[in-house]
Amino acid sequence: MSCILTVFLFSLASLAQSAHKAPARSAPAEQSLASIYVTGSQRYAPEEIAAATGLEIGSNATEEDFQRAIQKLGNSGLFSNVSYSYNHTPTGAKLDIEVTDAEKMVPAKFENFVWFSDDELRSQIRERLPLFRGEVPIGGTFSDDISDTLQSLLVQHNVSARADYIRETKEPGGPVEAVSFRANGVTFEIKEIRFSGGASEEVESLNAAAGRLEGKDYVRAQVDNYVATKLLPVFLARGFLKADISDPKIKVVGDTADSTQIALDFAVTPGPQYKLASIQWDGNKSFPTAKLQELVRAKPGDLANTPQLQSDLDTIHHLYGTVGYMTQSAKLTPQFDDTAHTVVYQVEIHEGDVFHLGDLDIQGLDPKATDRLREAWTLRDTDPYDTTYPKRFFEQTVKLLSRDVTWTISIHEGVNEQDKTVDVTLRYSIRPSS
């Protein structure tokens, strides 16, 4: 006669697990494990989850072994629910596991494990944690398990660093966007930067642009940002619109008493060079296309220059700000002709709503001077707001203030999306004499 028992159900709520045990008859203390049958996951294969339990087919197992294995899955954070039952049969114990995948997973990022490539890290982690696929849950113990694995790797390579992690958010208290793992207790200095694959002219410009990285502490996120904002524009400004700069290969080149010195080797793929065919505008109602086109410096036949065009779109944004369109934006979409090596830029203008003047706050002056300036202020709440007005106002009215000192001003514009107004704060101060 077989004995069937249903035991634990784990519900992960607020990162806490609870176990509920149903009444069950006593079972044999130990029996060979004949099979593990897993259902419910859309993210993992049944054999991956079975491997993650740590239980081995053919080995002897007890009810406590099943409980520990299921609790390990439940505590990981990878699943919102885990339940199991087992059946003792003449051929051995048959374990059935049912899971529900956790809804949210976020990328796992490796900031500064410079002794290993990302592929090596992922391979080593997956060898020890079969359910790792480059993402982690926002709660539970799985990130701790990865950190422990990374710590073991550091110890094996005689690296005196501590593996830690942080859950990254875009703003304090916001949703978790990624989990970032890093080796703490050691400092990395960028000693050398190399580029391979580009023409000599581009490499020379890249070397010049990368100079500010040398001697800096290596932090992956900062290097990635530098590549996107300082290095890639070297190509985008010269028509190489599909250029790619790879993640750097990192090599330890030396050690000092204070830091580990590393070299960054970037592989560069410029791709084809494009010329501007035309710019097509859509969505602009407040200004005619000819007016917007006047603010674009590039002409058809010029090398396509995306950074310059983005700068021109910023100028257009300021133009819209003079007539109250504070939330105007532009979406830039390139359409490539890879035969002619030309590009047509589609610019979609989103004008948004017209904003008006909200509150005016003048700070740093005595009451009489403040009253004089308020009387001189002519922009009214019935007028569309003009982003150029506060500066012009300062230049035109500074003569109303004491001429024995040099006045400076800081201007703050608070944009209120809900009521479509702009609160203006003018902070006056006296420039110290040199």
Give an overview of the whole structure.
With 434 residues, the chain is α/β, with parallel strands linked by helices. It has 5 domains: 3-101, membrane protein fhac (Ubiquitin-like (UB roll), Roll), CATH 3.10.20; 105-184, Ubiquitin-like (UB roll), CATH 3.10.20; 188-269, Ubiquitin-like (UB roll), CATH 3.10.20.310; 275-350, Roll (Ubiquitin-like (UB roll)), CATH 3.10.20; 356-430, membrane protein fhac (Ubiquitin-like (UB roll), Roll). It is built from 10 helices and 19 strands. The chain has helices at residues 46-52, 63-75, 118-128, 142-156, 200-210, 220-236, 289-294, 306-321, 367-376, 389-397, and strands at 3-11, 31-39, 60-61, 79-89, 92-101, 105-110, 135-137, 162-169, 176-184, 188-196, 244-245, 249-255, 260-269, 275-282, 329-337, 342-350, 356-363, 407-416, 421-430. The strands form 5 sheets. The chain has a 5-stranded mixed sheet with strand order 1-4-5-2-3. Strands 7-6-9-8 form a 4-stranded mixed sheet, with helices on one face. The chain is elongated.
Q: Roughly how many Å apart are the termini?
A: 98 Å
Going by CATH, the homologous superfamily of the largest domain would be membrane protein fhac
Q: Helix segment count?
A: 10
Strand percentage: 25-35%
Secondary-structure element series: EEHEHEEEHEHEEEHHEEEEHHEEEHHEE
What's the short story on this structure?
The chain has 434 residues and is of the alpha/beta class. It has 10 helices and 19 strands.
